[in-house]
User: Fold these one by one.
Assistant:
Number 1:
Amino acid sequence: MKNAQSFIGRMAVLALVTLGGTAAARGDEGMWLFNQPPKKILQEKYGFEPTGPWLTNLQRASVRFNSGGSGSFVSSDGLVMTNHHVGADALQKLSSHERDYIATGFHARTQAEEIKCVDLELNVLVGIEDVTARINAAVKPGASAAESQKARRAAMNNLEKESADKTGLRCDVVTLYRGGLYHLYSYKRYTDVRLVFAPEMAVAFFGGDPDNFEYPRYDLDICFFRIYENDRPLKVEHYLKWSAEGAADGELVFVSGHPGHTNRLDTVANLEFLRDRVYPYTLNLIRRREVLLSIYSERGLENARRAKEDLFAMQNARKARAGGLAGLQDPAVMGDKRKEEKKLRDAVQADPRLSKSAGDAWSQVGSAVKTWNDIFYRHQLLEAGHAFLCKKFEIARFLVRLAEESAKPNADRLREYRESNLQSVRLMLFSEAPIYDDLETVKLADALSMYMEIAGADNELVQKVLAGKSPRDRAAELIRGSRLADVAVRRQLADGGLKAIQSSDDPMIRLARLVDEPARRVRKSFEDKVEEPLRQAYAKIADARFALVGTDVYPDATFTLRLSFGEVKGYTDLGVQLPPWTTLGGAYRHAEEHGSRWPFALPQSWLDRKPRLNLDTPFNFVLTSDIIGGNSGSPVVNRRGELVGIIFDGNLESLVWDFVYTEQTGRAIAVHSSAIREALRKVYDDQKLADELGR
Amino acid sequence: MKNAQSFIGRMAVLALVTLGGTAAARGDEGMWLFNQPPKKILQEKYGFEPTGPWLTNLQRASVRFNSGGSGSFVSSDGLVMTNHHVGADALQKLSSHERDYIATGFHARTQAEEIKCVDLELNVLVGIEDVTARINAAVKPGASAAESQKARRAAMNNLEKESADKTGLRCDVVTLYRGGLYHLYSYKRYTDVRLVFAPEMAVAFFGGDPDNFEYPRYDLDICFFRIYENDRPLKVEHYLKWSAEGAADGELVFVSGHPGHTNRLDTVANLEFLRDRVYPYTLNLIRRREVLLSIYSERGLENARRAKEDLFAMQNARKARAGGLAGLQDPAVMGDKRKEEKKLRDAVQADPRLSKSAGDAWSQVGSAVKTWNDIFYRHQLLEAGHAFLCKKFEIARFLVRLAEESAKPNADRLREYRESNLQSVRLMLFSEAPIYDDLETVKLADALSMYMEIAGADNELVQKVLAGKSPRDRAAELIRGSRLADVAVRRQLADGGLKAIQSSDDPMIRLARLVDEPARRVRKSFEDKVEEPLRQAYAKIADARFALVGTDVYPDATFTLRLSFGEVKGYTDLGVQLPPWTTLGGAYRHAEEHGSRWPFALPQSWLDRKPRLNLDTPFNFVLTSDIIGGNSGSPVVNRRGELVGIIFDGNLESLVWDFVYTEQTGRAIAVHSSAIREALRKVYDDQKLADELGR
C-alpha cells in the first residue's frame, strides 16, 4: 500500500509518472483535488458539505513522506503519525547489527530520546495555484514534440525556481489529467524528523506476506515521528483531533493522503501495453529480486536484518502488481474498458468540434505506445538503471548527473536536477544510511546478469560494462573498488563538479559515466517520442471529457494530496459476510489458528499484556474510500474532521483499482483509532503519548 | 543434485535429453560407460585395474530411481540406500495432514512396518548391447530429416518391444554421443518398493537452501528403501559391502550412478542459445514457481507440508541453473569453449576425409538452433505443458495421448507411449499420490497467466483455453470441475480408449484435447527440424572426434549408469583451505553459529543424543569425481568395491560441470559411511539396520 514507485525503486512504473487521466466517478469513487472537492456528490449522497476551514485543517494536517507514503499531524507539538511500513525505511536506516528497530520497535520515553532520521523529508502542502495557461503558453503552436517537451520543461523548471525563491517553499508543478491542467503545489519542507515510537514488526505486520492485502486483518501498522525546527518540536496550528469513539459502522469518513499512481483513464491500447509488457517485465524483476533477497536473508540473522526492508518492499510490490495484472488479464475488466472507450469515442465523433480537436487522440496514444514498446527494455535497463541496480550505482549516477546538469542553465536541466529540487537531491545523496557491500554485490551481480540476458551477451555496451569479466566477478570488483559508501568522498566529488567527476578513478563513477550517454539517449527518445505525444493526446482526451462529462471529474493519482470519501462498511467474500472491523481479541485467535508461528506470532509484549486489554476494542476496519499505493499512513477522519483511523492497506479485490474503482468488494483497510490508544496505554505503558494524541 | 529433469518437471532441459556429446577427459574427469571403463587412465594415474567381477558387482548393485536419482543395494535383503532428497518424492506421496514423513522422518523397526510406496519404480541395469548398426540401418541414405526421424523412432520402438518381449526386462535404446552410438540397456524393473528409514528433514537437509551446493556441509542426506518381490524382501547377489573405516583423505574412490544431463560438447552456437534463451527462460519460470509456492506455503502449516517437495525442487533447480548460467555468462568459460571448438574445426578442416564428412556439422547445429529459437516458447508452453502446469493437466494429457497412441502401431507412436514403456506410464497414471485442489488451482492460474503473457492475450488458442474467463477464474473452474483426482475415474477413461476420451465431459480432458493438436504440431517441428538435424550434426562431430582423439572419450550424461573416479580431496576457497571432510561435532557448531534457527536447527533427536556420539566421526566429505544432477544417492566405493559414502551434492564451483569439468575447486559432496552407522546406532537406536548394512 506504500507508494509502489518508491517500493520498487526505479521500476517500470516510474516511466508512467507524468501521465494521468480523468474519470467520471461512480459510488464512492474518486481521489479529489483539495481545490476541487466533490461538493455536489457529497451533498447529494451524504448531505454533507465540507466547509473551507474543515478542508484547510485537513489539508494542512496532512503530511507527505517523500520516501513514499502519507501521514498526519496528530498533536500541536509536531507529532506525525504514519504506518510502520512507511516508517520502515527510516527505521532500517537507523538500525545496525546491534539494534534492529524494525524487529524490536522503538520507544522514546522522553523527547530527549527521540532520534533524528537519516534522510527523511516530509512535506506539508500549503498552496495550490493553477498555472496551466503559463505552462501551455511556453509551447509554440506547430512546435515539434521535442521542441514542445523542451519548452514545457524550461517553463516548469523556471516557474518552480521563481516561486521557490520568492516563498522559500518547495514548489512543484504537478501535471494533472495527464496534461489537461498544471498546478503549482507549494510545500513546507521538513528534514529534521525524529523517531518517536514504532511497535515491533511482529504486530505491525502481523500475518506477514500471507495476510498482506487481505481482510480480516489485525495489524498495528503505525509509527510516530516528530518534526523539529531549530531543534525544538514544531508547533502546528493544524492537526487532527482524536475521535472519542473512532470509526463506526456505516459512518461517512474521509481519507486525506498521497495516492501514488493510477491508470484509470488509459486508453485500451495503453492498458494492453501495461498488460503485455510493463507488468510482466516488472513482475519478473520483482520475483527475481525477491528470490535473491530471500536467499541472502536466509544465510543468517544479520543478513536478514540488512535486507528486511528491501525484501518486504519486493513482496509488497509483487502482490500489488500481481493483483494489477490479474485485473488487466480479466476479460470482464478489459471488456468494460473497451465499452467505455467506444462510448467516449462515439460521443467525440458525434460532436464536430470535439471530433476535430480530439478525434485522432486515440491513434496518437496507440502509436506513442508502439514506440514505447520498441525502446522499453533499453529504457528500463539503462535509464531506469535496472541493469546496475545497487545503491552505489544510484549514488554514482546522481553525482555524475549532478555535475553535468549543474553546469547547465536551470531551464535546460533534467527535471530532477532543476534548481528547486536540489535540496532534496542532496539530502539523498549525502545520506548516512548504511551501505552493505555484500548485499550490494549480490544485487549488482544479479542485475548485470539480467542485463546480459536481455540486451544480449554480444551487445557492445554490455561488453564494455562487463570489461571481459563475468557478472559476478565484475560486480565484486565494482563494489569492492568503489569508495562511495563514504559520504565525505561523495561530498568531495559533488563539490569538485565536472572536473572531479571526470578525473575520478572510482570504478562506479566510471561505470556511471560509461553508461550515461546511452542512458540519456534513450531517455530523450522516451521523452520526445513517448511522453510528450502521450501528454498531448491525453490532454485532448481530457478536454473532450471535460466538455462531455462536465467538471466533476478527478485526475489520476500523482503522489500529491487528494481527498477521498466513503463509508465504513463490511462486505461479502465467497458467501461469507465480513464485518466492518476486527477486534484485538481476534488477533490472538488468528495467531492461535496459525500455530503462533512466524509471521503469525504476536510479540512477547502483546502476549504479556493480553489480560489488561479490552479485547473487544476494534482493531482494523474496512471502508469504501478510494485509495492506492502511496495512501499508506493517510488519516481517516469523520464529519467533524476528527481522526478515526489510519489507512495501511487495501484488500485483494482493491488491487484492480489501478485501473478501475469497484466498491462491491474492494475496500481500503485502516487501523482503528481506538486500538492505537488502547495499545499505547496497555501494551506499551505510554500514557503520555496516548494523551498527546489529538491534543 | 537430484536429476534436474525430474526436479523442474517438464522444463526446458527436457528438450535436450536426447542430445549428447563427447569429451576428451582431463584429470579425474569423466562419466564413463560400464562397458567402456577408463582402464588406461586408471592404470596410468592410479595403478588400478578394475576386474570384470569388480565392475559387474558395482553395476548390479547400482539402482536407478526413476523419480530422478541414484541408489545402491547395501544388503543381500534388497535394502536400497539413496538420499533423503531423492526419497522425498516418495515420502511426500505417503504423507498426509496427520503424518508428515518428510518433517518427522520414518522408522520401520521391523520389516512388517515397512510401507509400500505409491508409484516408485526402481531399475537395475543387467545388460548393455551395441545396436548402433541396426538403428542406423533403418535410416535410408538421402532420407529427409522428417523421414529419418520417423524411421529411427520406429526402429527404436520395435527393437525395445522385441527385446522386452524376449527377456521380460525393461529395455531402452540409449542415444550416446548424441547419435554417435546407440546402446540397448536392459533393466530389472521393481515397483514393490517399501520405505524403511528416513531421518528428519532438519538433519537430512540441515542448512537448507542457504547451504545447498555449499561446503563445508553437515547433512545426513540418506534414506533407506527395500525392494520386495512376491511380498518378500528381494534376495540380491550383488550388493555393496560396508567399509570398516570409510573414505580416507587422498584415497581413490569411484562413483556409480545416473548423471542426468550434461552439455559438455555442445558447439558454441548451441551454448549461446542455452545462455541467451533456455537458461533465462527456465530461471524465470523456476523463480516464478518458487515465489508462488513460498506464498502458498506461508499461509499455514498444512499448506507448507503439501508444497514442501515441490518448493524444495524449485529451490534446488534454481540454484543449479543459476550456477549453470553463471558459467555460461563467464567469458573465461566461453573463451575456452571457443578455443576448443576452433582447434577441433581446424583439425577437421586439415583432414580431407573428416572435412568432407563433418566440415559442415557446426553450421548445421547453428541453423537447427536458430529454428529451435523460433519455436522455443511455443514448444515449452504447449508441448512441455508449462502453460497448464498442474497434476490434473498432466494426467489428462497422459490419458488423451495414451488413447490416441495406443490406437497406432507401436512403430509410429510417440517415444514415451512405445509398447515397452507403457508399464511405467501406467504406474504414474494410476498413482494414488494425493492431489490438492487448492495447490493445483494456484499453480494452474499462474501457468495460464504466464501463457497469456508470453503467447499474447489475442492469441486464438489462448482465448480458446481461457474461454472468456480470467486465468484465475478459469483455473478454479477447471480444477474444481475435473474428477481426475480419482484413480477409478482415470482407470475408467484409460480402459474406455479413444471413445471414452472423446465423449468425456471432464473439463481437464477437454482442455488436454483442445491443445493436443497444436502441441503435437510444435513437437513435430521440434523433432524434425531441431532434434534430428542436431542428432545428425552431432553424430558427425562425434565421429570426427573419435577419429582425432581416439576412443578414450565418454558420452554426455543420459540418466543412465556411469562410472566416475577421483580422490577424496579438500580444496582452497578464497584463500581458506577446506578439509576433505567435516565431523558430526561440526554440525553442532554450525547450528550454534546460526542461532540454531531453521534451517540451521538440528532435530531434537540429535540434540538429545549428542552426548553419546563420537563427535570426531567424519560426516560429509568432498571428492573430485565427476558428477551431475541425477547422481544424487550414488554410492561411493573404494578400490575394494566397499561402500565408503553416498553422493548427495556438488559444491557451487561444480555447477559449471554442466558444460565443463574443472577439478581445481569443483567437488562432489558425499555423506561419509561412518556417519551413517554412527547415527543409526546412537541417534536412532537401530542396531539392527546398522548391522544389516553391507551384510
Number 2:
Amino acid sequence: MPAADWILTNATIVTMDDEGRIVEDGAVAVQGGALVAVGPAAEVRSSFTAANVHDCRGRLLIPGLVNAHTHAPMTLLRGLADDLRLDVWLLGYMMPVEREFVSADFCRLGTLLACAEMIRSGTTCFADMYYHEEVVAKATAEVGLRALCSQTVVKFPSPDAASYEDSLAASRDFISRWKSHPLIVPSVAPHAPYTCTAEILQDCARLAVEFDVPLHTHLAETLQEVEQWREDYDMPVIPWVKKQGLFDAKVLAAHCVHIDDGEIHSLQHAGAGVAHNPSSNLKLASGFAPVVAMLEAGLNVGIGTDGPASNNDLDMFEEMRLASFIAKAVTGDPTALPARQAFAMATRLGARALHMADKIGSLEVGKRADLAVVDLDDLHARPHFGRSPDAVYSRLVYTGKAHDVTDVMVDGRWLMRERSLMTLDVAPLLEAAGEYARRIDIFLVKREGSVLNKLIAIGGAEQEESYEVQVKLRLQDSAPALARLRGPDFEILRTAHYQEYDTYFLFDDPAQGRLRYREDEFVDDEGTVSNVRYRLTLTGPAREREYEHSVLLSRSRFIAPATHSLRFYREYFSPQGELQVNKDRRRWLIRFRDQEFFVNLDTIVSQGFDRAYLEVKSRTWSRSDAEVKAGLILDMLRLLGLEQAEPVADEYPDLAMAAEGRTRPEP
Amino acid sequence: MPAADWILTNATIVTMDDEGRIVEDGAVAVQGGALVAVGPAAEVRSSFTAANVHDCRGRLLIPGLVNAHTHAPMTLLRGLADDLRLDVWLLGYMMPVEREFVSADFCRLGTLLACAEMIRSGTTCFADMYYHEEVVAKATAEVGLRALCSQTVVKFPSPDAASYEDSLAASRDFISRWKSHPLIVPSVAPHAPYTCTAEILQDCARLAVEFDVPLHTHLAETLQEVEQWREDYDMPVIPWVKKQGLFDAKVLAAHCVHIDDGEIHSLQHAGAGVAHNPSSNLKLASGFAPVVAMLEAGLNVGIGTDGPASNNDLDMFEEMRLASFIAKAVTGDPTALPARQAFAMATRLGARALHMADKIGSLEVGKRADLAVVDLDDLHARPHFGRSPDAVYSRLVYTGKAHDVTDVMVDGRWLMRERSLMTLDVAPLLEAAGEYARRIDIFLVKREGSVLNKLIAIGGAEQEESYEVQVKLRLQDSAPALARLRGPDFEILRTAHYQEYDTYFLFDDPAQGRLRYREDEFVDDEGTVSNVRYRLTLTGPAREREYEHSVLLSRSRFIAPATHSLRFYREYFSPQGELQVNKDRRRWLIRFRDQEFFVNLDTIVSQGFDRAYLEVKSRTWSRSDAEVKAGLILDMLRLLGLEQAEPVADEYPDLAMAAEGRTRPEP
C-alpha cells in the first residue's frame, strides 16, 4: 500500500469539485503537500498507510478559503479611522499615515498579523496588493500560507519607490526571483486607472504577460471613478483599460462595483477574475456590485475582505454571508446567490479568479493540500437538518463563524491545530503592533491639533513670504484713483479680473489661524468666465502688526491647490465655524519706484457691509524690505489722491463677521 | 462604607449614558441586582466594600445587548429551509412544520437553546414573539435572562389556540399573572395586520392598555403587504393600524421596512419603538428599512435578530455591524449610522424601543445590573488606536465578535463567566434538539417525496370522488349535438362558459400524478369576464381504466383553492416539467335518466393539436354507480347523434405533449 504523510479521517468532506460531491464519513490522504486521495474513509484508509492520522469526527473538512483581495499590512491600520468619506479616509488618514510609517518592517509585521488572523479564520490563500510586496511574500512564505503577492505601482511617489519606474523595476525583479516559489505567485498591481497613467497600465500588462503572472488591480470601485472616465474618455473604465491592453494579461480585478452588462461580458471574454468585497463596498458606501449578473455571465467572481482598515477584519465567513445577503436584498430575490454559490465564490471560483485553480479551490486528487477543518457542532449552528443536500452550505455560510475553524493545513503543512497557531508566535507581534499604534496616535494627535499639520498632511502646501504689507481703504468712487493709476507715476505690469468666492473655516483656537477655500473665476475682457482656480490658504494669526495707515503684518501663510471638494475640506478640517465672502476683484500688478505691488479693487457682493474697497499689497521674506515697502505705500496713496480716504484695519472675514453681528465662530 | 454584592473593576466602561461617558480604569458596584456605583475604579472601590470582586483588566464593560425582536423557540428550526422566497419558506416550510411540531415542550427547548446562544453573545434582554409564550417566559426566567415575552394572536388556528379568542384569553391570563415579574415583561402580539383582523388589533390594543404592557407586532415588513393595504384600504399600513387604535398601546413594531416619512413621523409621535432586523430583511429580500431617516426623526430604533430560521443565528454583533454597513451603502454616505450609533441601537435605543429604558440600556446608577464583559484584546481586534473617542465603538461594532464576550450578568446574577454558562447545561438540550431535527427531517422527507403530502401541507386540499366516468370525442361540427342536447331527452340544470388557463406540473415519477393550476375565467352572457377562480387539482395515476368508448377511471383526485401565485407553486412543488393548455369551455350540467352529468364543449386555443372536443363526465364514490353511469353514457351519445364520432382516450395534457412531440416532462 502506498504511504501518505497524513490521513485526515472521519470528516464530512465538502469537496467543491465539479460535481459538488459531499462525502460523509470521508477521508483525505496527503502526500508531498498534495491530495492523493479524497473519498469514503474506509476506502482511503484501505488504500493508503499513513504515519499520521488526524481525526475530524463531527467536523467538516473544506477547501481552504481564498481571500481574493486584501492589503495585508494594513492590518496595522485597523480601526485607525472609521465612518468617514472615502476621500477623507484615504487622503486625510490612510495616505498621510502610510507616507509616514509604511516601511519594510511595517509590512512584515502587518503581514504576519494578517496571516495569523487569516489562518484562524480558515483562509489558506489570499491575493495581496501593497508596497514592499517582496517583504509580504517572504513573511507569508515563512508562515506557510499561500498568496498572490502583487507589487503596487502608482504614478506618484509611494512609500517604497520614488517613481513609478522604480516600482516597475522592483516588480520585475520581484517577479523574476519568486516566479517558481511553491507558495507565492508574484505579480504586479497597477493600483487603479485613476492612480496610474495609460503608459503604466501598458507597461504592467507587458510585464505580466512576459512572466505569465497575474495582474492585480482595482477597477470601477466608485461611481465617481466611472463618471470621471466617461467625462474624460467618453467610455467607462473596462473598455478603457482594455484599450490599454490590460486584458492581454491574466487580470484579477477588485471591486467592479459600477460596471454594466457590456463590461461584464468584456471581463468574461477576457478571462479576467473579479474580487467582490462586500464589507468594504458597504462600509465605504461604494455601492452594490452586480454580483448576480456577473455570476450568471459565467465570470469567476471570488470574495475578498479588502484591507482591514476598511472592513475592519479579514473574516471570510462574514464576507460569504454578506455576499449572499446583499445579493438577495439588491435583486429582491431571496433565492439569489444561495449559500452553496457563496461558498463556491470563497473557494473554487476564488481560486479561478486568482488564476490558481490548477492548484487550489477544491479538495480533489492532484490539487495541493490546502484545507480547513470546521466545527459546526456548537450551539450557534445547531440543530442540523439533513434533508436538503445544500444544508451543509447553509450551515457554513449562514451560521459559520471564523472561530469555528479548528485546524488549517496549507501545502500539506499544519498551520493551526485545535485552534493553536503552529508557525507563529502572536504575542510579540501584537506588542510591536501596539507600538506602531501608539506612534501613529501621537502623529495624528499632533496633526489633528494643528490645522497647518493637517493641511501639510494632505500634500501640496507651500509656505509663502512671511511679511505682508497692505493697506485697505473704503472708497465711494474709485474712478479718480484708477485714472491716476494709469498715469505716468505707475507702471502697470499685468491686469486681471476675477470673481472670488471665499469660504473661511474658523477655529475656536485663534492660534490655528483661518483657512480659506477660494474659487477664483477669471473673467476675460468680454466679461465671460474663462478659467477657475481652487486654492486653500491658511493664514496664521499676526505676530506683529504695525503702522496706522499702511499695515505691516508678520504672519505665516501657506497656500495649496484645492484639488478636492469644499465638502471634503469641511469634513477633514472640522472647523468650528464658517463664513462666506464673495467679491468682484480687479487686480493690477504695478511697479512703483522699483518695487512691485498688487492693487486690488474689490466689490463685495456678500450682504451686510460696505461694498467697495481698494487694497495695496506686497509680500516679502525680509523685514527691512517690508519696512521700505510700507513707507512707499504712503507715497502711493498720496499720488493716487487717496490720502484722505478712510483706512480699514479689518480683513474681509472680520468685516463680514462684524456685519453679521458675531465675533466668534458659529457653526 | 456601604456593602455591595459585587464590584467589577479595572474595566473600560462604555456606559451609554446620556453623555456617552467612557470610563477608563472604571468599576461598577452591584447591590440587590442594581447598579449602585459606576465610575473610576479608585472612587468606586473607596466608596463600597464588596464580598466579591470581578477583575475586568484589559476588557470592556458594556450594557448587555438588547435583541429587539426574535422568535426564540424557532432556534429549533435554524437552517431547516434557506434560500427560498418568503411565501415558500413561510407557507411551505415554517407553518406546516410548526403545525406539526410546535408544542409547549418544543417552545421550552427552543427558548433554552436561544437563551444559551444569546448569553454567549452578550445579549441580556430580548423581545420575543411566539406561541406558548408563557413557556418561553418561564424558561427565560429560569435561565435568568430578561425578556419582553409577547403571546402571538392570529386570526387562524395556531399551534397553541383553536381560535383567536382563545389566544386573547390566554394572553390576558398570561399578562395578569406575570405582570410584576422581575425579569419578564409579559405582553400581547397581534402577529401582523395581514394575519389579524381589525377587531383583533383593537382587542389587543385594549388589552395592552388595560395592563399597561407593550404591544409587539410586525408592521410593513414587505412591499407586498403595503401594496395590498393601499389597494384594500387606500392607505399604507401605519395609518391603518393607527385607525384601529393600535398606538393607544406602547407599541414595539418589528421591521417597518416599507414606510414613508409621514409614517415615520406617526410612529415617532405615537412613542412607538421600532425593531430593525438587518439580516432577516436581507436574507428574505424584504428590502432596506429607512433606518437613517427613522433615527433622524428621533424614533427609538433597536436592532433585532429576528428568528434563527431567517438569520440564521442570534448574534447581535453581526446585526450591529450590518445595520451600520447597510445604512452607509443605501444612503451612499459612509458617515451614515456610525459605530457609536449602531451600538446605541443595540443598547439604549433598543431598551427604549422595548419601553424598558427605566431599567436597562445603559450602565447608570439605579438601573438593573445587566451587563457584559468583552475581550477585544484578541488578534482580530488589534491594534488599538486611542486618538478618537469613538474608537471603542468602532472596535465593538466593526471587529467585535460574539465569541469575544467573556462574562454576562443579568439583574446582578452571573449567567456566564469566562465563557462558561452558569445557569444552563447545554449538552442534553442539543441532544433533544437533534431529536426534533431528526423527526422534522423525516416528516419533510416523507412530505417532499409526495406531491400530495406537499399539497396537504399547505392546507385547504379536499379529496374528491374516486371514480370518474368520462368520454371525450373529437368534433368537426358541434351544432347538431348541441341542438339535441337542448331537446326533450335531456334536462339542462345549469349552463356556464369559461376561459380556462391550465398549467400542468409534471413529475418524473408517474406515481406522483399531475398537478394542475387552473385559472377559470367566468364569461357572462355579454361575453365579458365576470369572475376568476384559481384552483389546484392533483390527479393521481389511474388505478383502473375500463371500456373502450366511454371510460371509467378509478383514481385519486384532490382539489384545493389556489390562494398563492403560480410562481409560488412552481417553486414549492419543483415539478420536472410543465405544460400549458388553454381552452374555451361551455359547460352544461344535465340530468339524464335521473343521473347528473357534465357535458363540456371545449375549444383548445393552445397551438398544435385538434381544436374541438365534447366531453361527458361524472364522478362518484361508488364503483357500481360508476358502472351504471358508464352504461348510460353510451345511450347519451346515441341520442346526441355522436355514436360515430371519434373517441379520444388521451387527456388534454397528453394530447398537448403528443402534439409537441414529447412524451415526458421537460423543464
